[in-house]
Amino acid sequence: MRRLVAPLMVIVAIVALAVAARAAAARAAVGEDVEIPGDTKVKAVLFRPEGAGPFPAIVGLHGCGGLVNRAGQLGVRYRDWGERLAAAGFVVLYPDSFGSRGIGPQCTVRERRARSSRERVADANAARRWLQGKDWVKADRVALLGWSSGATSTLWAVRPHAASRDGKPDFRSAIALYPGCRRLTELAWSARIPTLILIGAADDWTPAAACEQMVKGARGRTAHAEIITYPGAYQQFDHPNRPIAQRTGLAFSADGSGRAHVATNSEARADALKRVPEWLAR
């Protein structure tokens, strides 16, 4: 019987490690629900790398469809990015700007309660401060990453006039995936921090031409700003598995019809998955 004790202990230890690994994987798949205090208590989803840190961090701003799906689960696109970026050594925090205010998807709404230029910028800064208060986050290495209307909010947040005077380090850099740039172009947009825009040439929701014009017009009066335009790509090109589909009834679209396409583009997605962590690690 004594000879069986050691092997049995080894088996028990292996099983325990396997169970712990599965539990960790399950947590990574859904993220951790947290709350950001402030005038508006903002619900958020947090992804953390393994280990004690401190780690660089990212505030992720969701698009007009919201952070969660109809089943109340984190959207596939955001979960995919959260898992990948956490595996690359980044803390990722997604503030839920809509759910925290009791509103649903806003893609068909013109007058939004959570405006890209105001409330969502405030949410981004509240999320940054929350992260900077954690000992497992590098306070001077918090970046901003946004999708669609969240990408538009990202571009508003990095303007020189939007700098937050809260005594905390500013965002280190920013990335905007398929933002709407028309209004910002008219306002002579510029950025106070390095900013990267990734957008599809075939995007008929938020057209690439407006963003290209915006970046070109900002040269000489902005921090480093760069735009990558992917041939043949629609909005949501970075989605893990989005078959091509036409959205209708949209409040904003390139031609004003309220119709636009979304689809995964394998080449654009592969480049974005490589380029985003490289930019954020600079």
Overview of the structural elements:
The protein has helices spanning 2-30, 76-87, 119-132, 149-157, 182-186, 208-218, 266-280, and strands at 32-36, 42-47, 55-61, 91-95, 137-147, 174-177, 195-200, 225-230, 245-247, 260-262. It is of the alpha/beta class and 282 residues long. It has a single domain, classed as Alpha/Beta hydrolase fold, catalytic domain (Rossmann fold, 3-Layer(aba) Sandwich). Strands 1-2-4-3-5-6-7-8 form an eight-stranded mixed β-sheet, with helices on both faces. A two-stranded antiparallel ribbon has the order 9-10. The longest helix has 29 residues, at 2-30. The model is unreliable at 1-30 (pLDDT under 50).
What is the alpha-carbon Rg in Å? 20 Å
| Mean pLDDT, all residues | 88
| Overall helicity | 25-40%
Q: Mind summarizing the main beta sheet?
A: 8 strands, mixed
CATH C-level class: Alpha Beta
Question: What is the SS-derived class?
Answer: alpha/beta
Task: Say what the CATH topology is.
Answer: Rossmann fold
CATH architecture: 3-Layer(aba) Sandwich
Number of strands: 10
H-E string: HEEEHEHEHEHEHEEEH
Count of domains: 1
Low-confidence stretches: 1-30
- Spatial shape: globular
Walk across the major sheet and give the strand order.
1-2-4-3-5-6-7-8
How much β-strand is present in the residues?
Answer: 15-25%
Number of contiguous helices: 7
Q: What distance separates the N and C termini?
A: 58 Å
CATH superfamily: Alpha/Beta hydrolase fold, catalytic domain
Characterize the quaternary organization of these chains.
single chain
